[in-house]
Every structure is written in C-alpha cells, then in structure tokens.
C-alpha cells in the first residue's frame, strides 16, 4: 500500500509566518501534519473540503515540534489523535511512547529528527511517487543552512543526513513548498 499526499497550504517566513500543512491518507488514516499558523483558517479548511475531507474525518494530527506556528490550528480536528515526539494524545488520554518508528499505517511512520528543536519529529510517507518526508529540518528548499533556532548545529546536520539517506523523492519543509533534494540541499 501507499499513502496519498496533498499540500493543503505552502508555508512562508518573512514579515509574516505560516507553516506548510500537509494531508496524508492511507486506508482509514486521514492525517494532517503541522496545522499551524496560516493567514486564515480557510487556507486549511478549503483545500480539505475540495479533497472531500471534513475536519471531523481527520483521524490523526502530527506536530513536527511544539512551536505555535506548527500547532496553532490543531483544535480544528475534534476527533483526531495528536502525535508528537513522546506521546499520543486524544481527549483526556495521554499515552507515552517514543515517536521513533511509530507507524500510523504501513506506509506512514514517524522518525525522531532533533535539529530545529530538540523534540523534532519527521513524518515519512511511502507514496506512489516515492518517499515523502515532512520535516522542519529545512524551512524551505534553501535551508537556511544554519537554522538560527537550532540549539545544536551538529545534531541538525546529523538529522538532515539521516533524512537524505532515506532517498526521499520530496522533502516538505516547515515553511515552503515541497522540493526534490539534491547536491545543493543544505546539510
């Protein structure tokens, strides 16, 4: 099996900031990655509706990390389970578990990739077009090479190398359009 992948909104950074928000689907899984800050909630809800997905259909939400620009609109999804680096949350239940190797489906899983923050998680999806990795190890296709928020530059480089070693067809950065990694991708 493979997952389907849709970018609901491509993020940006500058005078204003928005996260890149992604939808992954496979079987019963309807997952949103990083439902954070956007100019208007319609930037998440309208593309979902166009794909035939209601907010109550979303089964899972993944946070790449806990900065508000990646989590702010989580409450749009009232029935979802929420995944981060150390637990799964739903309603009033908090289940501790490491993110590393957690499979949401056969084709969608989580990797612990500390770099931008010590708690970063990347979401990996096997799609018909190849492996897609949603991650905040890069803000955009251009990096930045030196993430100004990364507490440990060596840890960031190691996590970036780990993701690139997977051979992804696409990397979905935290604040930009998906890109095909290549020799110029910052490590």
Identify the notable features of this structure and list them briefly.
Metallo-beta-lactamase, Chain A, alpha+beta, single chain, 29% strand, seven-stranded mixed beta sheet, 2 helices
Question: What can you see in these coordinates?
Answer:
Strand 10 (108-112) and strand 11 (121-127) form a beta hairpin. The strands form 3 sheets. This protein has a 7-stranded mixed sheet with strand order 1-4-5-6-7-8-9, with helices on one face. Strands 10-11-12-13 form a 4-stranded mixed sheet, with no helix packed on it. The chain is globular, with a radius of gyration of 15 Å. The protein is of the alpha+beta class and 187 residues long. The chain has one domain (4-172): 4-Layer Sandwich (Metallo-beta-lactamase, Chain A). It has helices spanning 42-50, 153-165, and strands at residues 4-9, 12-13, 17-18, 21-26, 29-33, 60-62, 81-83, 87-90, 93-96, 108-112, 121-127, 130-134, 170-172. Helix content is 12%, strand content 29%.
Please state the structural category: alpha+beta
* Spatial shape: globular
Helix content: 10-25%
How many separate domains make up the residues? 1
Q: Would you summarize the structure shown here?
A:
The protein is α+β, with helices and mostly antiparallel strands and 187 residues long. Helices cover 12% and strands 29% of the residues.
